[in-house]
What we know:
The chain has six helices and no strands. It is an all-alpha fold.
Amino acid sequence: MDISIFLAQVFGLYFVITGIAMIVRPRAVETLIATLAKRDFIFVTGFVALFIGVPLVLMHNIWDGTWRVVVTVIVWAALLKGVMRLFMPDMTAEWGKRLAGNRNMIRLLVWAITLVGFYLLYVSF
């Protein structure tokens, strides 16, 4: 199986399942964001994101102008998320706190992630 298709299926399923869960339980999303905005948690999740992001970027760095670029942007975002969490935990915590207080932005991001997930499922199955 092509790595692009595999990653699109994985990210697509993940985004759709988590997106729908967040749409159904919006209060849980606010609590989750507030929890993730704690400095100690940010640092630990930075290691995890970096550990996952590095091999994903090495495996999938395709900029061919097709749907595969969406997967590439996602893997680069995972890597950059890890780097930011490790090197700028205070700024990341501040962003998380601001996001937790902005329900409209949370809704927009949740719907965007869910729609990207549906798109990835469409192109990969």
